[in-house]
Write a structure and sequence with these properties.
The chain is an alpha+beta fold and 473 residues long. Helix content is 20%, strand content 16%. It has ten helices and twelve strands. Helix 3 runs antiparallel to helix 4. The longest helix is centred in the middle third of the chain and has 19 residues. The chain is globular.
């Protein structure tokens, strides 16, 4: 969770979002201790990648040729959209026809419409599963008796005596499995809040994978990511990952991070196949993300009059492009990129510098790292994407590692619990290059085990980029 420097104090409880008064030490609704701040691990200075040769000026990048399908991210589907099979490989029987709804059904999504960019691995609701066929001996109607009206069979009698429950088209609570879920996402029976689609997201695209989780303290996930694979004009593979962290002190931080990650990912996957140098493509992608976030602030004057206290949506961004021999990173804010070599006897490195108050104090020599990060202003960011940003200064850098490894792209929800490069390498499983999705899940679990005070998002990209289609099992 990033903070803007002008935000002197929180206006809402970080646990339950209850409005707070100035000077409150505890939340009046849930009793959350507002002074409880997790101890910040000691950081070490950013290290250079061992044996890295700086990218030469004026790289003779190959001229783009016509692309046949390259540059488009892999299609993603919700679980309910995929055909299922039983343990023997036979197609599952279709679900029984549902009763006609009382209200007109919502228009169906047109065939070929683009997916949302993330895969939601959530089980279907109970009423989505096909029911087992009833025993015909129990549902058969009795034979009619001449001269008497036909008697109702067991099925008709059960239908008459069964209590009314949630309609087939309504959502059922995941907690009590009985109550109806209202439009606000709460169970009308037990009051349990239902999980949102963005509470936990996972996606794997070829050799790159990402995982995002709401964490244990926040009521929603304000992080977002975009991952994909493409090919350069000469056919060489390239992997892309963008991770964005919504600024919680701004308005609509979840919308800002989603818009920025989508715009940056689409820009990169479109520019690389045309022959744009990856470092220039990263710079342009950050500008595209900034424009997408700025557009969210363009609202009618009536909306500003109704909520004059609201500020512009904002987020941070960090990204990486991995090719066969080049690693490019770009960022604005305090999300980070780490390099973890496959040979763990060689040192890992942090490849980005935070746009934060603490980093500025350390860089100016005014405070030590321990002093700066112990200050309450440590997480105040000095750079972000948004209409009220001071001045957009995208940072980009190119590296040429001389050995294989894994690139870690993450928000502060993870690096708060593995701040130094050595700690990040220790938390990451040794087979992360071969199983990036598993590795990302392990790192998210590391943050949740450490307390999960913030949203957690991490993407893993093996270096060098393997040929397309070589992903984790």
């Amino acid at each position: 969770m990033s903070q803007m420097p002008q935000q002197a104090a929180v206006s809402k409880c970080p646990s339950c979002e209850e409005p707070l008064e100035s000077g409150d030490r505890f939340c009046g609704a849930c009793g959350y201790d507002l002074s409880a701040v997790p101890a910040r691990p000691v950081d070490s200075p950013t290290l250079a990648i061992h044996g890295v040769v700086p990218a030469p000026e004026g790289v003779d990048w190959p001229v783009a040729r016509d692309s046949d399908g390259h540059g488009h991210p892999a299609p993603v589907h919700a679980a309910a959209e995929l055909p299922g099979t039983d343990s023997g490989g036979s197609p599952l029987p279709p679900p029984p026809p549902a009763a006609p709804p009382a209200a007109p059904a919502a228009p169906a999504v047109a065939a070929g419409a683009p997916a949302s960019g993330v895969r939601f691995d959530r089980p279907g609701e109970p009423d989505e599963y096909p029911l087992q066929a009833p025993d015909p001996r129990l549902t058969a109607e009795p034979a009619p008796v001449p001269g008497q009206p036909p008697a109702p069979g067991p099925a008709a009698a059960a239908a008459q005596s069964a209590p009314a429950g949630p309609a087939a088209a309504e959502k059922v609570c995941v907690a009590c499995r009985a109550g109806r879920v209202d439009d606000d996402g709460y169970c009308e029976n037990c009051g349990h809040a239902q999980p949102r689609e963005r509470d936990h997201m996972e996606q794997e695209s070829g050799p790159v994978a990402a995982v995002s989780d709401r964490g244990l303290r926040h009521h929603r996930n304000e992080d977002a990511f975009s991952v994909g694979c493409t090919a350069l004009p000469d056919g060489a593979p390239a992997s892309v990952a963008i991770v964005c962290d919504g600024v919680s002190s701004a308005t609509r931080p979840d919308d800002a991070s989603l818009a920025a990650s989508r715009a940056a990912g689409e820009s990169l996957l479109g520019a690389l196949p045309r022959g744009t140098h990856p470092q220039q493509a990263m710079h342009d992608a950050i500008l595209a993300a900034s424009q997408a976030v700025n557009a969210l602030a363009e609202e009618p004057a009536t909306a500003r009059e109704q909520a004059p206290h609201q500020n512009a949506p904002a987020c941070t961004l960090v990204g990486a492009v991995v090719t066969a021999g080049l690693l490019v990173v770009g960022w604005v804010g305090d999300s980070r990129v780490y390099w973890v070599p496959a040979d763990r006897t060689t040192p890992p490195a942090r490849l980005t510098e935070d746009d934060s108050w603490a980093a500025q104090m350390v860089a100016a020599g005014l405070m030590s790292e321990a002093e700066a990060y112990a200050d309450e202003r440590a997480h105040a960011i000095t750079g972000w994407l948004g209409a009220d940003a001071y001045e957009l200064e995208p940072h980009t850098a190119s590296f040429k590692p001389d050995r294989a490894g894994v690139v870690v792209v993450c928000t502060d929800g993870l690096w708060n619990y593995a701040e130094s490069a050595e700690e990040m390498a220790e938390a990451m499983p040794p087979d992360a290059a071969a199983r990036p999705l598993h590795g990302a899940r392990v790192l998210v679990g590391h943050a949740l085990d450490g307390g999960g005070h913030d949203n957690v998002t991490v993407a893993l990209l093996p270096f060098p980029a393997p040929s397309q289609g070589a992903g984790s099992a």
